[in-house]
Amino acid sequence: MNSKIKINQENDESKRLAVLIDADNAQAEAFEYLLQEIAKYGDATVKRIYGDFTSTQNRKWKAILNQYAIKPVQQFAYTKGKNATDSSMIIDAMDLLYTQRFDGFCIVSSDSDFTGLAMRIREQGLSVYGYGRETTPESFKQACHKFIETELLLPKDDKTEKTSFKNIKKQRPIPKLLIKLFNRAIEESSDDNGWAHLSSFGRYINKIQTDFDSRKYGYRKLGDLVKDRKDLFEIQIRESHSGDRANIYIKSK
Length: 253
Prior knowledge:
Helix content: 25-40%
Number of strands: 10
Low-confidence stretches: 1-11, 158-163
Strand content: 15-25%
Order of helices and strands: EEHEHEHEHEHEHHEHHEE
Radius of gyration: 20 Å
CATH class of the largest domain: Alpha Beta
Distance between the termini: 25 Å
Largest sheet: 6 strands, parallel
Number of domains: 2
Number of helices: 9
């Protein structure tokens, strides 16, 4: 096989995305890497962050706003115990939704209060990407098309990165329920001979388990996971008709 052949991947760079950030429930230290992750799914056409930036808690965001051209939306806490930030963010999201200028929304928060918003955007036929902590409630995770845990985006020391991924494999083995989902995904996306294209396999998994991420189990990409787990998968690499790309096909063992 030609060594210059590239593995086939979906190209979503043309998608126009609105990125809305809940400053009270997002990790400022992960933001640089968050934008890199968002770039995989499209262009961050709008970037807005919501919160009370006069508070001590949100001062950490001030240095980030200009650096990454994020529009701050100041929201004072008018009533104690009421989250005015959430309301302002939801209202803005609906206004942006009705402009019909976007292909998807990125909601950066670990708050379950945005579950209804994610569901409403999905009903309109747009993609919803959620970004939050591992502890984010399942209701919000499952309301998104894809949910990414921000802890997975934080960088590791280059010298220890390989070792760190090995440690994750030891600490977080692939659970039996996920292995069952793998088998089901292959069954649902395979051809008559039982072979499933890697991208179709991945899309099916994400439809059922929106917070699935191979990085949780020590693999940078889904392709790395299936190649390493020879106890679970058979693999075929097929050249495209043009000969400049390669497609990964897998089958359950």
